[in-house]
Amino acid sequence: MQIDLTGKVALVTGASGELGRTMSRTLAQCGADIAIHYKGNEAKAKSLQAELEALGRRAVAVQADVTKLDEVLRMKEHIAEQLGTVDIVVANAVIQYAWTTILEQPAEDYTSQFESCVLQSVHLTKAFVPGMVAKKGGRVIGINTECVMQNLPTQSAYVAGKRGMDGIYRILAKEVGEHQITVNQVAPGWTISDRDRENNTEQNEAYSQSVPLKRRGTDQEIANVVAFLASDLSSFITGAYIPVSGGNVMPSI
User: Fold this and answer.
1) Are 37 and 9 in contact (CB under 8 A)?
2) CA angle 77, 145, 218 (to 5 degrees)
3) Mean per-residue pLDDT for 79-89?
4) CA pair distance 71, 219, nearest whole angstrom
């Protein structure tokens, strides 16, 4: 048994970022052709495109502001011209900001998280799910966070945006399930990425001690779950929120 995405087209938003690059590589290694979304980092997106093409995959780097529907629709048309209909959507892009208390957090940070978590999800649905309906199948995967279960001080804007995203995906799973489209969320813990490896910041004892597995997870471990959810091996899983956090958060029944 293996994950085989041969013949599938996957879109990863925020693909030029730390986790996005690893998810894109992993989906490509499983056989998918990749639409590499970026907002501002064209150089990294183009570098990733060349890397994936060297694997024998078709790849295209496409720029868009995913908080704007017209730009997402333009991105869809460009991907369709280059790769065809998207079978797998991975909503990974998010706006970065400085975390602080609710009393001090600027209102615009709540707006940015709503736009990049909730509206991105809505725009991607409107642009790409109709093609999945026509093909009678597809995968929508949202990258959420363990923070929505932690609710720790200074997390408010991020948690508010990601909790709104959670509502969108749970409802979408019910609305499109009859078309054999699955809709799931992967919720990473505090993940080790290339930036940590370069800066020797992989270890954080205080955080690791709170995790049952006593370590931070890696970007590859997150990407592995995304690849599973993108594949036929997960064909009867939908509406799920799956923490990949070493047990740091545990949804209850």
Assistant:
1) no
2) 90
3) 98
4) 28
Cβ neighbour number for residue 69 with a 10 Å cutoff: 16
Contact 54, 30 (CB under 8 A): no
- pLDDT attached to residue 158: 98
Catalytic residue numbers read: 158
User: Please, is 232 exposed, middle or buried when counting C-beta atoms within 10 Å of its C-beta (0-12, 13-18, 19+)?
Assistant: exposed
- Asked if residue 84 lies in contact with residue 9, where contact means CB atoms within 8 angstroms, the answer is yes
* Sequence ranges of the domains in the chain: 9-244
> What is the reported pTM?
0.96
For residue 121, give the nearest of 84, 98, 153, 93 by alpha carbon: 93
The single residue listed with the structure tokens 């998207």 is 86
The pLDDT of residue 142: 98
Give backbone dihedrals phi and psi of 244, rounded to 5 degrees, phi first.
-120, 75
Q: Which residues contact 74 (CB under 8 A, 6 or more apart)?
A: 64
Provide the pairing of β-strand 33-38 with 138-143. Answer: unpaired
CA distance 224 to 29: 11
The predicted model gives 140-149 an average pLDDT of 98
Q: How far is CA 213 from CA 56, 226, 235, 244, 246, in A?
A: 36, 20, 28, 11, 5
Predicted pLDDT of residue 125: 98
CATH class of 9-244: alpha beta
Backbone phi and psi for residue 91, each to the nearest 5 degrees, phi listed first: -90, 100
Of the candidates 74, 76, 77, 109, the residue with the CA atom closest to the CA atom of residue 94: 109
**pLDDT higher than threshold 90 for residue 200:** no
Sign of CA dihedral 83, 145, 166, 164: negative
